[in-house]
Specification:
heterodimer, A: about 525 residues, alpha+beta, DNA ligase i, domain 1, D-amino Acid Aminotransferase, Chain A, domain 1, OB fold (Dihydrolipoamide Acetyltransferase, E2P), 3 domains, seven-stranded antiparallel sheet, six-stranded mixed sheet, 20 helices, B: about 325 residues, alpha/beta, Metallo-beta-lactamase, Chain A, Rossmann fold, seven-stranded mixed sheet, 8 helices, 19 strands, globular, EC 6.5.1.1 (chain A), DNA ligase (ATP) (chain A), DNA repair (chain A)
Chain lengths: ~525, ~325
């Protein structure tokens, strides 16, 4: 537990992604099984101990610390696990117990029932120091809050054992914690685990943005780019899973899809909600905003299912009836896909159509109309390319419609992270109401050069008129041209609008703030 | 015996000793002030006459240009005192920073101690806290919650040294309050065997010199502004907390950001300040010190001033000690704890 506690402690304070990666790599290389596997599971949120909840911890503390002092402390610290770790009495000096392993802690917590969970947790806490107690409680309650995504953990594994991240992604979901066969394979002590009859994840093939190149449509096929989320549905070994692009399982939020995807196959497609926002009645998909209502839920109410019915627009077939199609060229996969889609329930699946365009110019014209049709853009896929993981040059391109732009006024600024920790690099900007008031419409932290960042940083410092914790309010004099992909109604902001992918496209030092755009102008662009 | 309430009046901006017509640590300019120590939330500028230890007066002279030689200012050494309006005042070490004092007042057979800020653990830069018997004990409560238990200082210094040695191409930038904390960290580093030059922010220069003049050796100090970037790799840099992660730090070789403060005990606090290396080093009593001190002094009544008054009040209630909270304003300099 000491090594794990030290890792958690360092991760809490480390901000840079590469430093976090280095810490995890070092831990995985130098920690024995099964502790490192359990640690990895804890970091990626793969552990759950139903008998141990925040209430268990509160009850436990209640028996040892005055309730009022616990309440005051909890209020100050803001986190139950940390409060408990700090309040728990240290073991008397000289009475150091034998070191507790992560595996022992996991075993004890897994075997706990609601009845004996407090006693079990107490006996574990008694064997640890402050950092150890914090790590144990975070492991027990979930929600590490150390800024490590599942993707980062997988990358650390790949780096630690010099294996390909694609292999790690594939194997990850097929092997339960503490991942002993994965480590054995990583260290070259065992062959790659067999994935027959397992609903495992296939790393996604990704696209580069098209930047000025002209494409020969005899080599490339074009499809519309739909604004939903990319998903992979896998049915195999009696199981159905839905994976997001990062390899996260999101099936629980879409039970209606799990219920109807019953073919032995792996498909790649866009998860959307039924509607007419994208491409009208023919397009048949609601805006991304509608889909957002469905994301991130652990359970879904019946009303949600009725109000925001989800479906998948399928564009690739990676495996079917036991054979892996990924090595085949796109045109062959497409041929098989067209034959396969009729096997799926039409209520929840349709085929992403190929755009009929003879020449690139014709496609360019179609793309130019994408904005009016409220479609995100077009995708270009090389006809003879196999399905390969990651972003490979020359195979797939995304060609988004041109962004919208608006002239906004900088209102607030905040410092960035890592390399940008000393720069005010995150800007909140607003537009004018008819009453002449500025209301925030978005926040951006990219799009400018390093020199422009220096200039913006200095502007913020020289024009600060108020401070709210880390946030500076600035004089409302600087116009920023903001580019964004689309804008939607949103209850989260006072302006009632939210931008997608906003970035600073130009600094308009030449433009007086009162000539910036009005909220009404932005509202007219909303989809 | 006199009733304290008849002669010592708590006001939001300080304690007023009526028979002596004198304020203790007033938050605004007054005719006559007794000052426990030099931190800005206790020592303000603009008083006509100041009673304080010679060290505190020197600090006030440095910070506010107080004229030490003026006849209306009175240097009162530890163990010494003066009488005014029938009240006998004396100053006793509080162990907080150089010159910090508890003030004992005796009036018609009643004894009241005002601690100002204090700590109980060893500090190479100032005289250690002395327990003074009293009827009413007026204590600070900065860390008046049981989550605050400062670990041994040596361990925190060892963490700092390990971080410097682990990445010799970087430097460790320690945020430390300019009066007290900075000098203590330096002195503790020297005691732990770190004899390399320590690089400091210009804002620390004069206070470090003042400490040296008062017999606290700090070893070789260099100004960051006069040092080459390369020369600071593998070294320890000290700056006031406000300079962390700001433009000033861009001149340093890839600094690891550390901060020496009792607040660093709470992880989320450290994270909010973007601190990578939290050092729990405090000049204030932690929970155990606060409660042990009340138990040791064992006054008839405790008055609790700035900080987490509620926590310490609750402890007094649980241990059946008479206590009340005074709500003084303008205390609690977050940076300084």
């Amino acid at each position: 537990m000491k090594r794990f506690a030290a890792l958690i402690d360092r991760l809490v304070y480390t901000r840079s992604r590469n430093s976090k990666l280095a810490l995890i790599v070092d831990y995985l290389r130098h920690t024995p099984d099964p502790d490192r596997g359990w640690a990895l599971a804890a970091l990626t949120g793969a552990l759950d101990f139903p008998a141990v909840k925040a209430g268990t911890v509160r009850a436990l503390l209640g028996a040892r610390v005055d309730e009022e002092l616990f309440r005051l402390s909890r209020h100050f610290v803001g986190d139950t696990a940390e409060t408990a770790a700090l309040l728990w009495p240290d073991a008397p000096l000289g009475k150091e117990a034998e070191e507790l392993s992560v595996a022992q802690a996991v075993d004890a917590l897994s075997s706990a029932t609601r009845g004996d969970a407090p006693a079990i947790l107490a006996s574990l806490l008694d064997r640890l120091d402050g950092d150890g107690r914090y790590a144990l409680l975070k492991l027990a309650l979930g929600g590490m809050r150390v800024g490590v995504s599942a993707r980062l953990a997988k990358q650390a594994f790949a780096q630690a054992f010099d294996v390909s991240i694609d292999d790690v992604e594939e194997l990850w979901h097929a092997i339960p914690p503490p991942y002993a066969p994965l480590f054995a394979w990583g260290e070259g002590k065992a062959p790659r685990p067999d994935l027959t009859d397992v609903a495992f994840f296939r790393p996604f093939m990704l696209a580069h943005p098209l930047e000025g190149e002209s494409i020969d449509l005899s080599d490339f096929a074009a499809e519309w780019k739909w604004d939903g989320i990319r998903v992979q549905l896998v049915h195999g070994g009696g199981e159905t899973r839905i994976y997001s692009r990062g390899g996260e399982e999101i099936g629980a939020a879409f039970p209606e899809l799990l219920a109807v995807f019953d073919q032995d196959a792996v498909i790649d497609g866009e998860l959307l909600v039924r509607g007419e926002a994208q491409g009208g009645a023919e397009g048949g998909a609601a805006s991304f905003n509608a889909l957002q209502q469905r994301l991130g839920r652990k359970t879904v109410a019946r009303k949600m299912l009725a109000d925001f019915p989800a479906f998948v627009r399928v564009y690739d077939l990676l495996a079917v009836d036991g054979s892996d199609l990924r090595a085949l060229p796109w045109h062959e996969r497409r041929r098989q896909l067209e034959g396969f889609v009729p096997r799926l329930a039409a209520s929840h699946f349709d085929l992403s159509p190929v755009i009929a365009a003879a020449h690139f110019d014709e496609l360019a014209t179609l793309r130019a109309g994408a904005r009016d049709a409220a479609i995100e853009g077009v995708m270009l896929k090389r006809r003879d390319a196999p399905y390969v993981a990651g972003r490979r040059a020359g195979l797939w391109y995304k060609w988004k419609r041109d962004p919208l732009v608006a002239d906004c006024v900088m209102m607030y600024a905040q410092r960035g992270n890592g390399r940008r920790a000393s720069f005010y690099s995150d800007y909140t900007f607003g537009c004018w109401t008819d009453a002449g008031e500025l209301l925030p419409v978005g926040k951006a932290y990219s799009g400018f050069t390093d020199d422009e960042l220096k200039w913006l940083d200095k502007f913020v410092r020289d024009h600060t008129i108020g401070r709210f914790g880390p946030v500076r309010e600035v004089e409302k004099t600087l116009v920023l041209e903001v580019a964004f992909d689309s804008i939607h109604a949103s209850k989260r902001h006072k302006s009632g609008l939210a931008m997608r992918f906003p970035r600073i496209s130009r600094i308009r030092r030449d433009k007086p703030a009162e000539e910036a755009d009005r909220i009404a102008t932005l509202r007219a662009m909303a989809t | 015996m006199a009733k304290a309430k008849t002669w010592l009046e708590p006001h939001p901006h300080g304690l007023y000793v009526r028979p002596a017509d004198l304020w203790i640590d007033p938050a605004r300019p007054v005719e006559r002030a007794a000052v426990t120590h030099g931190h800005a939330d206790h020592a303000r500028s603009g008083h006509h006459a100041v009673f304080a230890t010679p060290e505190t007066l020197a600090i006030m002279a440095l910070r506010y240009g107080v004229d030490i030689a003026a006849h209306h200012n009175h240097a009162v050494a530890y163990g010494e005192g003066f009488e005014r309006g029938g009240v006998r005042f004396s100053f006793h070490p509080a162990g907080h920073v150089l010159g910090s004092a508890q003030i004992l007042m005796e009036y018609q057979g009643e004894r009241i101690v005002v601690t100002g800020d204090y700590k109980r653990r060893a500090d190479p830069t100032c005289a250690p806290f002395e327990t003074v018997a009293c009827d009413i004990f007026i204590t600070e409560a900065t860390f008046g919650l049981p989550v605050f238990r400062h670990p041994p200082t040596e361990g925190e210094i060892a963490k700092l040294l390990a971080a410097v040695r682990a990445e010799p191409h970087r430097c460790v930038l320690v945020g430390a309050y300019a009066l007290g904390k900075a000098q203590r960290v330096i002195a503790e580093l020297r005691a732990a065997g770190w004899h390399a030059p320590i690089f400091i922010h210009g804002a620390l220069e004069r206070m470090c010199a003042l400490y040296s003049d008062h017999g606290v050796p700090l070893g070789e100090l260099r100004l960051v502004s006069e040092s080459a970037k390369d020369a600071m790799a593998g070294q320890i840099i000290l700056a006031p907390p406000s300079a962390l992660n700001d433009r000033w730090s861009r001149r340093l070789p890839d600094p690891v950001t550390a901060m020496a403060s009792g607040w660093m005990r709470v992880r989320q606090r450290a994270r909010q300040r973007m601190v990578e290396l939290p050092l729990v080093i405090s000049d204030h009593a932690d929970w155990d010190e606060l409660t042990a001190t009340i138990a040791e002094v064992d006054p008839q009544e405790s008055w609790i001033t700035h900080g987490s008054e509620e926590g310490l009040l609750r402890w007094c209630e649980l241990t059946q000690r008479k206590a009340r909270a005074l709500h003084l304003i303008g205390r609690d300099l977050e940076e300084e704890a």
